[in-house]
């Protein structure tokens, strides 16, 4: 995430303090704090609805879209905590201004709270199937509408037409407009570039698609991703995939898609040449730096896809020495190995190293440092692959002298949890440990 975007979000939630502070002298401070928490939750939810729109320029302020999805998740969690505290802490006080709908607004606020609680928790429980999650996620906007209704008509110590009321209302309207756009208007007026599927082939466990534009087409940079949907009943839902081909003059696109879920398996079985596709994008800031500093590329499994585009672009780019580590665990053919070897032969500054764990070989920070003669201070490292591998390599490389800011990675999984699996595993292990400890004590003879 980019710092300017985070600062704007923090300031947006702090600005209401300007108007809440003078009220503290004449109102119950605890109840007023509860009112502030409710207002902050609405502000964060309104911003969150806006972040989901993917409007042009949003990456400039908040960072690449893969990071925005992480921000989107955590804003939802923080807003949920603020809503929960607002509900727990008594917000009632004497002399409040309301209207004939204040009672209904109170009840609707309760429904909104519990609806958002269920749906936001469902969003961070990653083992819920994607299609069920996406369907339920659309309902968040409905409960946000109910929360906005609660705010507009509930009794409160200020009017909707005072500066504080207008400020909070603006974020409610922002969220409502964003939700209506994404759920109703955008599907009726799809935005994107129309393509035709020209080639479908299997490369190892990947489905490769080559698309030809039916109009101007989309211009992209190596390493970016786009949202793809196929004009077919089973494949009409859009999904994000990395573009595995370098930019072409005819603006053709290549996707290399692994069978990881229901949609990608259906795509493998269903997609055929001649089908129409809609591509929306491009997105992401995972791109090569300018200059001639040494670069290390690490692609693990399907994480090789952005580096296919990187490698192709080296034919015309002016770059320093590049070493590509392609980490696989294949017993037979390695996807794209021949293509990468051919590019490496044609591009003098690219060296390909295939690291095959099936042969007992592992990539370590020691090996990377050794290949750079121990000098990691000037190198840029680009990684795409499993999170655990990324964290381990980054930690070890930083300890060996690499600057953390020069370790670049893409959030490969846009839908992430908040550590519920880790927590469950820890609780299970802890429970087993305590049970074994207790049984061991019972087995010991009494003194």
UniProtKB/TrEMBL annotation:
It is found in: Membrane. PROSITE patterns: FAD_FR (PS51384). InterPro entries: FAD-bd_8, FAD-bd_FR_type, Fe3_Rdtase_TM_dom, FNR_nucleotide-bd, MRET, OxRdtase_FAD/NAD-bd, Riboflavin_synthase-like_b-brl. It comes from the Bacteria. It holds the Pfam family NAD_binding_1. Residues 190-289 form the FAD-binding FR-type domain. Its cofactor is FAD. Keywords: 2Fe-2S, FAD, Flavoprotein, Iron, Iron-sulfur, Membrane, Metal-binding, Oxidoreductase, Transmembrane, Transmembrane helix. It is a multi-pass membrane protein. The chain crosses the membrane at residues 36-56, 68-89, 111-130, 137-154, 166-185. Its main location: membrane. This is Predicted ferric reductase.
């Amino acid at each position: 995430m980019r710092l300017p975007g985070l600062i704007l979000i923090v300031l947006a939630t702090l600005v209401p303090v300007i108007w809440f502070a003078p009220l503290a002298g004449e109102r119950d401070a605890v109840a007023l704090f509860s009112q502030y928490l409710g207002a902050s939750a609405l502000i964060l939810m309104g911003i969150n609805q806006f972040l989901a729109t993917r409007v042009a320029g949003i990456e400039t302020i908040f960072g690449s879209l893969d990071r925005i999805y992480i921000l989107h998740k955590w804003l939802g969690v923080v807003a949920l905590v603020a809503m929960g505290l607002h509900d727990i802490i008594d917000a009632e006080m004497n002399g409040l201004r309301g209207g004939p709908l204040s009672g209904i607004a109170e009840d609707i606020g309760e429904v909104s709270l519990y609806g958002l609680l269920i749906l936001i928790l469902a969003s961070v429980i990653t083992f819920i199937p994607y299609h069920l999650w996406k369907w339920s996620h659309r309902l968040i906007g409905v409960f946000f509408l109910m929360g906005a209704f609660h705010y507009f008509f509930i009794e409160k110590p200020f009017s909707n037409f005072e500066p504080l009321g207008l400020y909070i209302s603006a974020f409610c309207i922002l969220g409502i407009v964003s939700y209506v756009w994404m759920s109703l208007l955008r599907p009726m007026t799809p935005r994107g570039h129309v393509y035709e599927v020209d080639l479908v082939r299997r490369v190892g466990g990947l489905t490769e698609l080559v698309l030809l534009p039916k109009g101007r087409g989309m211009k992209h940079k190596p390493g970016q991703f786009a949202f793809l949907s196929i004009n077919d009943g089973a494949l009409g839902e859009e999904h994000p995939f990395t573009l595995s081909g370098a930019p072409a003059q005819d603006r053709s696109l290549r996707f290399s898609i692994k069978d990881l879920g229901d949609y990608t398996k259906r795509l493998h079985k269903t997609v055929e040449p001649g089908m129409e596709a809609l591509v929306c994008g491009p997105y992401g800031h995972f791109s090569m730096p300018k200059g001639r500093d040494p670069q290390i590329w690490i692609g693990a499994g399907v994480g090789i896809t952005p580096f296919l585009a990187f490698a192709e672009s080296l034919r015309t780019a002016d770059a320093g020495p590049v070493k590509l580590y392609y980490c696989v665990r294949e017993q037979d053919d390695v996807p794209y190995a021949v293509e990468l070897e051919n590019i490496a032969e044609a591009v003098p500054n690219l060296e390909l190293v295939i690291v095959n764990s099936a042969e007992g070989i592992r990539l370590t920070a020691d090996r990377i440092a050794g290949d750079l003669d121990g000098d990691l201070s000037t190198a840029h490292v680009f990684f795409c692959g499993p999170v655990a591998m990324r964290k381990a390599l980054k930690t070890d490389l930083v300890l060996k002298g690499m600057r953390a800011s020069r370790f670049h990675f893409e959030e490969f999984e846009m839908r992430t949890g908040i550590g519920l699996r880790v927590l469950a595993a820890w609780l299970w292990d802890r429970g087993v440990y305590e049970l074994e400890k207790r049984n061991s004590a019972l087995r010991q003879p009494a003194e």
